[in-house]
Specification:
Strand order of the largest sheet: 3-4-5
Largest sheet: 3 strands, antiparallel
Number of helices: 18
Radius of gyration: 24 Å
Oligomer: single chain
CATH topology of the largest domain: Lysozyme
Structural class: alpha+beta
CATH class of the largest domain: Mainly Alpha
CATH architecture of the largest domain: Orthogonal Bundle
Helix content: 25-40%
Shape: globular
Length: 472
């Protein structure tokens, strides 16, 4: 989990190719000749390789710069067979890391942080595969709006993690210390170094979770190095603002569900309208097709073609026939005309993640205050503010939705993972990555209390195990 804020990011020229094309990370501007109906203004003299911002390939030269540190001390098992990510995604992460001048070995870090789950959301609010807190993400100028949350973007989060890890490595002069600081914050590592006689990792006093973090990373890295390429390659292409990904999927011959899954940072299955252009993860085999379609299609409505039926359009767009008919008054337009699309009904990844982490929505009522809401569930106004990325002085208003955790208040929605028990007890369902120490810190209790309440003689946990915890 990232806990530190870094200096302002330096914009990088990602791609520079012919015909006046310029793509930048700072503005996302795309300058080229205006395309004609066939798109030749964009595609002329630009081959399928040059339109790809990144391409993950198992054939790329691999630079390994991070030595393993006691992988046998990892408290979690890692093996090539158990890696939860597609090798195509691993290769893509390695390509991005390489482009940032960092060792590709760091592609193992999201395995430890989030099990490569794009929608991961920790109980302290860290989100995405690299586990960024919202404050950290804003410091790095990551977009977090109603339309996009770049903490859930494979490309943006990996590039931001690269900047932070590069800073930590330069500051501490050692990758193991840098990884420890990524986990617990550089201030903790600085104080540990100041108090230690030998200023090196393994010889300093760190929190228990951080003590096992680097061995976990080493075990994951060792397993990742032994994994073989067995999935299609993935690439990243630049697409314009205001583009409905369902239309792009239909025009490119890509399964709309897969395209959405690779690009969950777009919370409404479309790139935000206006302003900058956006990066999209796509199969390498379809990168050229996707790029041309993205810059030539109608971005909001589907162009009906001869032979189209409600069923074929529904399948291509990943939208139910009923929803399509409702949006178009059950009238299928003639070929050459446009079909209106309903809003996406896919649950945004940030909402899914919050619910998975035991949060629920509460609708503010007249007279509510952050302190009053917090007191009703046994937490401080500061905790409520932190969960909702606001300050304790922020004015709240009736109808506003807040994310809370604990026993649901009247007026709340959704199902929570943590349920209230008797005498202030709560239950916690163990998931991958949980440790006894981490749970103790999260709930403000001791490891011994958790063990005693659950009749456990050690700190071992099993995924799916239900623990009783009594927060103090």
């Amino acid at each position: 989990m990232v806990q530190y804020r870094l200096t302002v990011l330096i914009s990088v020229l990602l791609l520079s190719c012919c015909s006046g094309t310029r793509i930048h990370t700072d503005t996302g501007t795309y300058n080229d000749n205006q395309p004609n109906a066939s798109g030749s203004g964009i595609m002329s003299d630009i081959n399928s390789r040059s339109i790809e911002l990144f391409r993950g390939s198992s054939g790329d030269q691999v630079i390994r710069q991070i030595p393993l540190h006691a992988p046998h001390l990892s408290d979690l098992p890692y093996s090539p067979e158990s890696c939860p990510a597609e090798s195509g995604m691993i290769c893509l992460l390695q390509a991005i890391l390489r482009s940032e001048g960092l060792p590709v070995d760091l592609a193992a870090l999201p395995w430890v942080e989030s099990s490569y789950y794009i929608g991961d959301y920790s109980r302290v609010g860290a989100a995405g595969p690299w586990q960024f807190m919202s404050g950290t993400a804003r410091h790095f100028h990551m977009n977090m709006t109603e339309e996009v949350d770049e903490r859930y973007s494979w490309t943006s989060s990996t590039r931001t993690a690269s900047d932070y890890l590069s800073y930590l490595r330069n500051y501490f002069g050692d990758w193991h210390l840098a990884l420890a600081a990524y986990n617990c914050g550089e201030g903790v590592v600085q104080r540990a170094l100041a108090d230690a006689e030998r200023k090196e990792y393994g010889m300093i006093e760190l929190p228990g979770e951080t003590d096992v973090f680097v061995p976990r990373f080493s075990a994951a890295l060792d397993a990742l190095r032994g994994r073989e390429q067995d999935n299609p390659e993935l690439s990243v292409v630049l697409v314009p603002p205001g583009l409905d990904l369902r239309i792009l999927a239909a025009e490119s011959g890509i399964d709309p569900g897969l395209l959405a899954d690779w690009n969950r940072s777009f919370l409404k299955e479309r790139t935000p309208a206006g302003g900058r252009n956006w990066e999209l993860v796509v199969p390498s085999s379809r990168a050229a097709v996707v790029f041309q379609a993205a810059w030539t299609v109608n971005r909001t409505d589907y162009l009906v073609r001869a032979g189209d039926t409600w069923a074929s359009i529904s399948s291509a767009l990943g939208i139910s026939e009923g929803a399509l008919k409702e949006a178009n008054n059950s009238v299928l337009p003639a070929p050459g005309q446009f079909l209106l699309l309903p809003e996406s009904d896919r649950m945004p990844v940030n909402t899914q993640a919050a619910q998975r982490a035991g949060f629920y929505a509460y609708t503010v009522r007249s007279g509510d205050t952050l302190g009053g809401i917090g007191a009703s569930i046994g937490v401080s106004s500061r905790e409520v503010a932190a969960w909702n990325d606001i300050s304790t002085t922020t004015m709240i208003y009736p109808g506003q939705r807040l994310m809370l955790r604990g026993t649901p208040l009247e007026g709340s929605e959704s199902v929570q993972i943590i349920s209230g028990g008797s005498d202030g007890e709560v239950t916690h369902v163990v998931r991958h990555g949980d440790t006894m120490w981490q749970l103790a810190v999260t709930y403000g209790v001791s490891v011994e209390q958790i063990q005693e309440l659950n009749g456990k003689e050690n700190s071992s946990l099993s995924i799916g195990e239900i623990l009783i915890i009594k927060p103090e």
